[in-house]
Structure formats: C-alpha cells, structure tokens
Amino acid sequence: MRRLMMAFGLMISLPLMADEIALSAAITALQSPDSVLIDVRTAEEFAAGAITGAQQVGHEEIADRISAIAPAKDTPIVLYCRSGGRASVAEESLRAMGYSNLINAGGYDELKLALESQD
After folding, report:
1. How far apart are CA 100 and CA 46, in angstroms?
2. Which of 1, 103, 112, 117 is the most exposed place for a label (fewest CB within 10 A)?
3. Cα–Cα–Cα angle for 32, 24, 66, nearest 5°?
4. Enclosing domain of residue 24
5. Is 64 helix (H, G, I), strand (E, B) or coil?
C-alpha cells in the first residue's frame, strides 16, 4: 500500500515538475537576443494583456506566418497561450515543419509570473 501511495504521489507531481522545467527553459531561451516569443491566443486575448515583446500569431495560422517571423528553423521559439493547449498544437505544427528549438511555456499567467520573478 505504501508503494502505491508513493507511486500515486509521483504521478501527481510529474506535471508540476514538467511545467517548472518548461518555464525555466523558456526564461533561459528568452535571454537570447535571437529568441522569439509567440502568443498563440486570439487577438482579443492578446489585446487584454500580453507579455512584453510577444508577437500574436493564432495557433491556426502559425504554419502560414512562421517563416516571416523566424526563417531559421533553429531559432529559439517560446510559445504560450492561456493554458498551454493551443501552444502545444502550434508546437506540433512547427515541429512538423522542421523547427527544432521550441518551448511550450504553457499559460500566460504562469509565464508572466515567472518572468516577473526574474526581475
């Protein structure tokens, strides 16, 4: 029973650790001058609040617009949305196109808080 409880606790904590790792990787990537920060939320969500320096490109149009934003496929690209779901869809699209240096930073609120804590 004890092992079962330990396994359950580990399974519950894995998403939290993954989120922390992605946020840490995003913060590190954004320190590079050639990195690109892309907000894949809607234009309305972006207008209501966005991270400084982010470009708004909806997840459904990222494949059409990415070459103008990041022509080099090894450009560090950090993606975020409201919760990480649309950023994941955008990440999959970009990987299929050959982009290799991608980070799904998850949700806007979490990334904003992580960036603010770096100041």
Report:
1. 25
2. 1
3. 50
4. 2-118
5. helix
Q: How many domains does the chain have?
A: 1
**Could you give the percent of the chain with pLDDT greater than 90?**
80
Q: Note the pTM of the prediction, 2 decimals.
A: 0.84
DSSP reduced 3-state for 80: strand
Written as six digits, the tokens of 67 are 């070459």
Which phi-psi region, left, alpha or beta, contains residue 9 (left: φ > 0; alpha: ψ -120 to 50)? Answer: alpha
Instruction: Supply the CATH number for residue 73's domain.
Output: 3.40.250.10
Instruction: Report the b/e string of 52-91 with b at 16+ CB within 10 A.
Output: eebeebbbeebeeebeeebeeeebbbbbbbbebebbbbbb
Q: Within a 10 A sphere around the Cβ of 1, how many other Cβ atoms?
A: 5
State the maximum Cα–Cα separation within the chain, in Å, rounded to a whole number: 56
Reading the block at residue 73, the tokens are: 């496929």
- Indicate the DSSP class of residue 74: T
pLDDT in tens, 21-58: 889 999 999 999 999 999 999 999 999 999 999 999 99
